[in-house]
TrEMBL record:
<keyword id="KW-0808">Transferase</keyword>
<dbReference type="InterPro" id="IPR051612">
    <property type="entry name" value="Teichoic_Acid_Biosynth"/>
</dbReference>
<dbReference type="Pfam" id="PF04464">
    <property type="entry name" value="Glyphos_transf"/>
</dbReference>
<dbReference type="GO" id="GO:0047355">
    <property type="term" value="F:CDP-glycerol glycerophosphotransferase activity"/>
</dbReference>
<protein>
    <submittedName>
        <fullName>CDP-glycerol:poly(Glycerophosphate) glycerophosphotransferase</fullName>
    </submittedName>
</protein>
<dbReference type="GO" id="GO:0016020">
    <property type="term" value="C:membrane"/>
</dbReference>
<dbReference type="InterPro" id="IPR007554">
    <property type="entry name" value="Glycerophosphate_synth"/>
</dbReference>
<dbReference type="InterPro" id="IPR043148">
    <property type="entry name" value="TagF_C"/>
</dbReference>
Length: 355
């Protein structure tokens, strides 16, 4: 069996790698297809470090040419792909989403039918089946979390790697790129949390796309504080930071839910920087961007209405980390399905059975 992973964005890797590990364990040949961009040297080094067989393409046209030539059994995608009709002449396609957040795009990415989509939990599976009754959806759980659930990461080693003080508790700030809270944070906010380690893990777009250059300027300023570790491009995976942190501060990012399903306390920033065409009479655009369950998911965290609420909430959550435990556990199944560390195995079992 041969399997290809279409890796248009670097942040797809944390979802792909646990599946790749399982495939390699049964001697299945895998290839990662990377798309040329501004971080090629970093990605090439990551591929070398992870012993990934890889090729590079300029665009999706080159990608489909390669897929037609290779005729793999399966090609994985984290999002849609415009040449599925051509691909399906030679290979089967599998969709493996890269996040479990509250954005409506989680569901709309299935509008172009793949051979199968692996999803997280029975709730999401049923919603997708209702929207796309002719397509196949398989509930496998959230394979991205397998390395944490299987104890593959060491908190002490990670603290040392990032130069963090083992005597301090650790705050993880993981904002998304849009709509984001980044621009609403003070320029010197890490000074308000000088008794804590602060890890800042922005979305890949915040550090790679020109339209978010103001966000990058703020991130670089914050990185100058003694207690701050700013994740670099090569820190593409959120998993080590989820493992090491004691509390998460986020906004509409999938990171918020990934942390919560580990039964750790979350603070949700409600203060967001919205573009003018998302405000006032155009607020429907923001609502359309978010999933219909956005309001239900909100109960999984305590909410900071403004930055000034943040320090108090951090202190309260660290003092009583189990305060919202029952809600987190209740919503975990709805958000991520099975959390037993075997999601990747279930995916590989499906792939091999369909040969």
């Amino acid at each position: 069996m041969k399997v290809i992973f279409d890796t248009k964005s670097l942040y797809y890797l944390p979802q792909y790698l646990p599946v790749n590990k399982e495939l390699n364990g049964i001697d299945v040949s895998t290839i990662f297809v990377f798309y040329e961009g501004i971080h090629d040297p970093i990605i090439k080094q990551l591929a070398l470090d992870s012993d990934l067989s890889s090729i590079w393409v300029k665009n999706e046209e080159e990608a489909i040419d390669f897929y037609e030539k290779e005729q793999a059994d399966w090609v994985f995608f984290a999002n849609s792909f415009p040449y599925l009709d051509r691909l399906h002449q030679v290979s089967r396609s599998a969709q493996l989403g890269h996040g479990i957040g509250p954005k409506a795009s989680y569901y709309t990415k299935s509008s172009r039918s793949m051979s199968v989509r692996f999803v997280e939990g029975d709730y999401r599976k049923k919603r997708l089946e209702k929207m796309f009754p002719d397509d196949e959806f398989v509930d496998v759980g959230f394979c991205k979390m397998d390395p944490i659930l299987n104890g593959e990461l060491s908190k002490d080693d990670l603290l040392k790697r990032y130069g963090l003080n083992k005597q301090r508790l650790t705050i993880l700030y993981a904002p998304t790129f849009y709509p984001s809270s980044i621009e609403k944070f003070p320029k010197d906010w890490p000074a308000d949390f000088q008794d804590y380690n602060v890890i800042i893990k922005p979305h890949y777009f915040s550090i790679s796309k020109k339209q978010y250059s103001k966000q990058l300027s703020l991130l670089n300023r914050w990185s100058e504080f003694e207690n701050v570790y700013l994740a670099k491009t090569e820190d593409y995976s959120l998993l080590p930071f989820l493992e090491v942190a004691d509390v998460l501060v986020s906004d509409a990012s999938s990171a918020l839910f990934e942390f919560a399903i580990l039964n750790k306390p979350v603070i949700w920033c409600d203060f967001l920087k919205l573009r003018w065409n998302y405000r006032g009479i155009f607020s429907y655009k923001f609502k359309r961007r978010m999933d219909q369950d956005y309001g239900d998911y909100a109960a999984i965290a305590v909410h900071a209405k403004k930055y000034q609420d943040l320090k108090r909430l951090v202190e309260e959550q660290l003092e009583s980390p189990k305060a919202l435990e029952s809600i987190r556990l209740e919503l975990s199944e709805k958000l991520a399905g099975k959390l037993d560390g075997y999601s990747s195995k279930r995916i590989v079992e499906y792939l091999t059975q369909k040969i």
